[in-house]
Amino acid sequence: PEPRCLPIIHSDKILILDFGSQYTQLIARRVREIGVYCEIWAWDHDPEEITRFAPRGVILSGSPESVTETASPRAPHTVYELGVPLFGICYGMQTMAAQLGGKVESGHAREFGYAAIDLTTSCVLFDGLDDYADAHAVTGARKLDAWMSHGDRVTAMPPGFALAAATESIPIAAMADATRRWYGVQFHPEVTHTRQGGEILRRFVVEVCGCATRWTPAGIIADAVHVVRAQVGTQRVLLGLSAASIRPWSRRCWSAPLARN
């Protein structure tokens, strides 16, 4: 029979649609560090394959492009029809706004670097987070340190979205549609400069999308064991290896499935 991967680590998966951001690989790294399988596909990937992939959630990356340009990339309409949570980051938030009936404008001064995010209303991605909790104990205000890299900005949210965060220079720094579980942030949670970024991504992947955190070294080895056993069956195996650096790993990974073969 054809070897098949264990569904236990692959059924809960996130799809990252890449619009050309320099940080897209970082998004994938953060998701995998959480313990969830993910793949990066180009923004113009075959919509039918996106549907067959059946992700538990979709992340739209940033981009050096401008949403205000007619020929700029757009998210395939398929992602809005999957019925799964969406998380737009920077350009990803802007294309969501433009495609769903909001407004994006250019012509503003580019913003690159640190920004203080004011958390304006309750949102599952931000509730309880505050990088300055001691200073805000009396006022009740909450702020996050975040990293910005953009020129365009969302100036009007699409129908169904509510304001979740703002800065002194950006009235809409984050937006949320809790009913459809669609979220957008103008900043970059995937970079370390955004101090709570890892937790924000974890909340989206685990709490909003409902992914189990099984994409771990132990889970990957167990999956490899399953694949080898399915392919080898009761046959004997001759395994040739080179490079001393892989020998300890190979012994650990293959000793279990091949112990009796």
From TrEMBL:
Gene3D superfamilies: 3.40.50.880. GO terms for cellular component: cytosol. Residues 15-207 form the Glutamine amidotransferase domain. InterPro entries: Class_I_gatase-like, GATASE, GMP_synth_GATase. PROSITE patterns: GATASE_TYPE_1. GO terms for molecular function: ATP binding; GMP synthase activity; transferase activity. It holds the Pfam family GATase. Keywords: ATP-binding, Glutamine amidotransferase, GMP biosynthesis, Ligase, Nucleotide-binding, Purine biosynthesis, Transferase. This is Bifunctional GMP synthase/glutamine amidotransferase protein.
